[in-house]
Amino acid sequence: MSEEQVAVCVPGRVDEARDLVAALLAEHASDADPPAVADALLVTSEVVTNALRHGGGITGFEARIGFGGPAACCLLISVADRSPALPASPSGPRPPGAVGGYGWAMVRKLAAHATAAATADGKVVHVRMELPRAAGQPRGPAGGGLTAPSAPGPEPARPTGP
């Protein structure tokens, strides 16, 4: 990757993390494919929810946009929490009426890469989301950046009268 944009914070709520990532994507990856952006926001929500609900709270959060490689860019998310327990995917079908338990499996399905590792203070989850350009969007300028799509101009005035 030739250039990166980073946002670091310790969000106390899921919407804070999601809004931070949405703003980062809007500013630095505005030509990314909308379904890929939606997946990135869903994965952000899931890993932050898990840290808040099961990890004893967030101790670190970083969202990083990297440019270059096979996709136009990628989103790298790291979330640290206080629990050393690593996320697990269900081993089989859930009983009827059971709720939850599929978040990590969903993250792993949507992400290009997802890992979790124990640390001295708990664990850290790292996720990489590929963000291909939307169809028809040109690559940004040399040096790695992406350009925002240009808005169409006003329609030309049409003659009126006889």
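That was protein one. Protein two is written in the same sequence-then-structure order:
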Amino acid sequence: MPSVAVGLFLMGGALQEQEQDQGEDRDSSLRELPLATQDTCTALEHNIDTMAVDSTLICSDMGKISKRVIAAEVTLTDHTEVIQTLQDQVGQLKEKTAYCYACAGDAEGRCRCNIIHLVGVPKWTEETETEHFVEGLVCLMVKPEYLSA
């Protein structure tokens, strides 16, 4: 029995020591808790400050980009107006060119008729292309016998 009592005593002492160690650990943990909380709060404040600086930089960059977009829109509007003006001028030039071609064609036709009537060139030359017409006139000037053809 004495050995059982000694064993229980020793075991009781070990339990008591273990409880005492756990109590000290808990006390030290409780003492360390405010420090850990303070460290966590400091880290969070640092992160918040960093995010505030980052968001300020982002807002600044967004402002710059917005100004560039507005400038690009203004430039685009200016270019659109210039392009529209150029297209209008090209349209006017096309109309004038078509009118000039019509006048030239009319003048060429009248010249052919006048030459035909003056020189007595056969009627078939009126329907020929300009190159053939000129060749025919040269032939008539060099060899008048083509008139009878």
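The longest helix spans residues 2-120. Keep this in mind for the problem set.
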